[in-house]
Write a structure and sequence with these properties.
Arc Repressor Mutant, subunit A, 3 domains, about 20% strand, disordered N terminus
Length: about 500
Amino acid sequence: MTAAAAELMDYDQVIDEFDPVMGLEVHVELGTTTKMFCGCPTAFGADPNTQVCPVCIGLPGSLPVVNATAIEYAIRIGLALNCSIRPSSVFARKNYFYPDQPKNYQISQYDEPIAYEGHLDVALTDGTTWRVEIERAHMEEDTGKSLHIGGAGRIHGADHSLLDYNRAGVPLVEIVTKPIVGAGARAPEVARAYVTALRDLLKSLGVSDVRMDQGSLRCDANVSLMRKGASEFGTRTETKNVNSLKSVETAVTFEMRRQAAVLAAGGQIVQETRHYHETDGTTSSGRRKETAEDYRYFPEPDLPPVQPSAEWIEEIRATLPELPWVRRARIQLEWGVSDEVMRDLVNVGAVDLIIATVDAGAAPEAARGWWVSFLAQQANSRGGDLADLPITPEQVAEIIGLVDEGKLTTKLAQQVAVGVLDGEGEPAQIIADRGLEVVRDDSALQTAIDDALAANPDIVEKIRGGKVKAAGKIVGDVMKATRGQADPARVQELVLAACQ
């Protein structure tokens, strides 16, 4: 059954008849300068196949060497997730063939991961907390990237495929949850809240740029359904490489509704991977899902065990930063905002963006106003999350500063922000290119004011009669005539002076 033809059960009916079970696997590309087992660079966006060597493309006789910084980052992640750190962990070969895996195996960890048995408490939209149990966080290397040319960008229907191995060997940590049960109708919300909290945590640790749009953070969402009262989990599907927070929630919701419809019709769920489609929020069948036995794991013979000392682990623990939720509680007190306001800021993903904007020099109130109003509207209209907007807190702070200095009006500043979002460059460049800076030449303003006064003699009489508010009509006409580039306060002063 294709995604387009999928039958879906009403969500409320799904919850009445089934209990959802989830397992979330999040792949984090580590922000090291070199790859996991070789010295090739990891910079994103380089020309295809220019960041490769015999090790990461699997040439015979090449030998891997572990990246020590990647080990440190993995330990940082494990500690922040309240995991135990294994005193001796090993790498294994995960054997499978796929065109973007040049060695025909992936160096990963299997039964002895570096971190295990942890948890992450995540905040839901109503202010309650849900504890997600972490089964393991293990190290591995990323694969290359397949580019399917023609069709819909998928291998099915493509004319041909191209392979870019730049990403092959980039360090990864895969964080695997234990089964998440009991969430009921809130399962999709819990999934999104978990990935959101995990992304915030990883960013604060400085181990990854967590750019979901660039694949630095990817979520595989495992979903199954149990009939009410059943004790055994249902057959699961794994929706691969979901790359936005909104999409995590949408993918889980779709799979719950799709699986429920299949089961209600007497069908069976196939254990398989599924592709998520950003365009319509659906999933479609990928390939039959392998079991651990299918991968024929065995210890990597070319790498020794990873054996971090207890002293080193404690040194790393001592360098962990203030955790995002602790920082938010402190910031809430500093800003003097209510629990309800803070919860709203968290729910729209604005808190860390506001903090970074304030750190860049903006006033807290102005930073909040920009992110939760104008920029939130832009994110909604562009169909993405606030954090995924292509504008940085530093750029927002710069725009706010220009408003504070009187060089931009709010409307002009919004035009500058749209220019940044549309990829036109930095704020200063956009102001120059679009000619957006506030007109401060009184003589130029006076011409527009005189024209507006001449066109509205009745308004002039009202102003002269003491009705100062009537000047708003003249100010509006002048702002229109100057394309919004006049300073409204200065225009008001000149209008009142002219009517005396």
